[in-house]
């Protein structure tokens, strides 16, 4: 009888071990920042609040924070906003950014005053963190539960076990320094690529030439309502505009706020799943 009970106990332990979730490499708390989210980070022992901007392309440092960490900006980076406006900025190289005890390296950062890019009453920030800081890794953006997760191979397998991969386009502008991600949305005419943008707090943007494909008026000057499928079971609904842009489209918080987005930034893979009920 004792042997039978021992065998049952060992079997239960084995089942528990199998059921136990694989631990990710790291989990970081995302803080609300106006209609977007932010991360606490430190550089050279100096802490600050950084907006998390998944479509930002390159990690930014505010000039005052760059001075605080001992960087003298040099050179010039040149790029374009999605509206086509050109931005030039000096750079700081080899910036080691610490997130809750986990070090990450930004080979190149842009030094830009973020204040003109934000609302006048926005709280000051030390900069913004973009996907380039996580190049080569797999991350999960869980906005419903305000978490940014760096996955391990085992935790990734569990995360996407029942999910279907979606088309992903990784863009590396600024001579390869920047990194942004777009999901492919099929239409009758072909695939339209929408940037996944945690820095866009309130809109869905569709470039004018593609507006009609998504039931929007390309000639409308003001706000419209987007209401279309990104993929089966994944719906984009919310305030929409149809400006002339140099990208196809942009999916901000109206789409992302209740999704779990997993990005394999090494192999170019994407999964998007509905989240559990959002944090209140």
Question: Would you write up a description of this structure?
Answer:
The chain is mostly beta strands. It folds into 2 domains: 112 residues, Beta Barrel (Cathepsin D, subunit A, domain 1), CATH 2.40.70.10; 125 residues, Cathepsin D, subunit A, domain 1 (Beta Barrel), CATH 2.40.70. The chain is 12% helix and 42% strand. The protein contains 4 helices and 20 strands. The chain has a 7-stranded mixed sheet. A 6-stranded mixed beta barrel has the order 3-4-9-5-8-7. The longest helix has 18 residues. The chain is globular, with a radius of gyration of 21 Å. About 6% of the residues have low confidence.
Give a quick rundown of the structure:
The protein is mainly β and 280 residues long. It has helices at 2-19, 63-68, 153-159, 253-256, and strands at 26-29, 31-33, 36-43, 46-52, 60-61, 74-80, 86-99, 102-111, 127-129, 138-142, 147-150, 168-171, 180-186, 191-196, 204-206, 224-231, 234-241, 249-251, 259-264, 269-274. 12% of the residues lie in helices and 42% in strands.
């Amino acid at each position: 009888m004792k042997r039978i009970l021992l065998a049952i106990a060992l079997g239960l332990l084995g089942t528990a071990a199998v059921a136990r979730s694989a631990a990710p490499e790291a989990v970081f708390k995302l803080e609300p920042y106006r209609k977007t989210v932010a991360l606490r980070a430190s550089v050279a022992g100096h802490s600050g609040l950084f907006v998390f901007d998944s479509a930002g392309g390159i990690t930014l440092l505010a000039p005052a924070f760059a001075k605080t960490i001992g960087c003298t900006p040099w050179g010039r980076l040149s790029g374009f906003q999605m509206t086509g406006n050109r931005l030039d900025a000096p750079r700081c190289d080899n910036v080691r950014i610490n997130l809750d005890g986990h070090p990450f390296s930004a080979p190149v950062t842009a030094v830009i005053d973020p204040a003109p890019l934000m609302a006048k009453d926005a709280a000051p920030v030390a900069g913004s963190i973009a996907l380039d800081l996580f190049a080569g890794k797999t991350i999960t953006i869980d906005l419903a539960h305000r978490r940014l997760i760096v996955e391990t191979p085992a935790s990734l397998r569990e995360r996407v076990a029942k999910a279907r991969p979606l088309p992903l386009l990784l863009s590396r502008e600024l001579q390869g320094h920047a990194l942004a991600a777009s999901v492919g949305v099929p239409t009758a005419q072909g695939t339209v690529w929408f940037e996944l943008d945690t820095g866009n707090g309130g809109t869905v943007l569709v470039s004018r030439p593609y507006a009609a494909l998504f039931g929007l008026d390309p000639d409308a000057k003001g706000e419209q309502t987007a209401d279309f499928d990104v993929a089966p079971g994944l719906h984009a609904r919310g305030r929409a505009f149809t400006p002339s842009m140099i990208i196809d489209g942009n999916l901000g918080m109206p789409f992302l706020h209740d999704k779990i987005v997993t990005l394999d930034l090494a192999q170019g893979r994407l999964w998007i799943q509905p989240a559990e009920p959002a944090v209140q």
